[in-house]
Amino acid sequence: MRYIVNPPAPVSVPVLGTADRFPVHRIYCVGRNYEEHAKEMGFTGREPPFFFLKPADAVVVVNAGETGSMPYPSLTQNLHHEIELVVAIGTGGKNIAAADAHQHIYGYAVGLDMTRRDLQNDMKKQGRPWCIGKAFDQSAPIGPITPAALAGDVNNAEIYVQVNGADRQRSHVSKLIWNVAETIEHLSAAWELLPGDLIYTGTPEGVAAVVRGDTLVGGVTGLGELHLRIA
Ligand code: MN
Fold first, then answer.
1. Ligand 1 center–CA 6 separation, angstroms
2. For the chain, does the N or the C end have fewer beta carbons within 10 angstroms?
C-alpha cells in the first residue's frame, strides 16, 4: 500500500514531566460556558451547552518553561484571547453520564481558544458557521497535559490570562455554567468521544484583542502556565 501524498504527521501534546505524548484526535470547544462571558457577548441565562470544533492540527504546542509563538492570523483586525481549561479524554464513550465522566478523563491543560472576533461576529449576523472565526490555523495554543491524578482540584481552580503583564481575564473554574462532567455528558450524547479528544471548556469574561508583539501568560491553578507571544 502506498499513500499518494505523504500522510499528515500525527498531532500530539506533551505530558508534563515525562517523554510521553498525548495524540490529538479532535478538538471540541464549548461556547459561552461562563455566565459573565455570556453576558459580555450579549446573552443571558443558562442555555443548553453548544459546541464547535477546531481541526486537530490547529494546536500550537507550548512546552513547559518555554514561550510559544503564534502568528497573527490573516483576514482579522480583532484577534481575541479566550483562556480555557482543556480536558484530555483518555477513554472514549457515548452517552457518558456526568457521574461517570471522571473515568474518561486522562488529564487537563491550559489552552487558548484564539478567535477572529470580527469574522465570527460577521458569520453570527449572517447565520453562517463560525469556522472562519474559530477554526483557523494555529488557533488552539495549549500547554502540556497534566494527568488528572496530579492536577489537584481543577474544578475549583483559578483561571486567568495576562497580556503584557496586566490582567485580562481572571475567574474560577467553579463558575462554569456546565461543569466538566456535565459537559462530557452533553458532548458524548452528540458525538462518540474517543481517546485523544480535547475539550476546550469555555472562557470567563474579559475577552479582548491582542496585537503583534503581545505576550500572553495564561494559567489554571495546578496546571502551570502557558506563555505565548503573538508574532
Ligand atoms: Mn472559547
1. 32
2. N
